[in-house]
Fold this sequence. Notes:
Elements: H1 2-26, H2 30-55, H3 58-84
Amino acid sequence: MMAWALDFALAAVALAAALAGWRLLRGPDHPDRVLALDTLYVDTVALVILLGLRFASDLLFEAALLIAMLGFVATVALARFIARGDVVE
């Protein structure tokens, strides 16, 4: 039962990531694309965590933590760039 639930969750999160990728490519404005990128990295973290549960690998949980930290920094940098035109004053 747990394997079926993990497979279903993997498929659902992969679909969400594909839709966020579509919005990233086809977004009408820059804020929409930044939000899609933020959603895409959250989906990626969820996929890596689900794969870590599926394969019982501790290394994948550490990779998810690194992706989450880099995604946060990237979102803040992109938001500052769009709002002010530069990242660092």
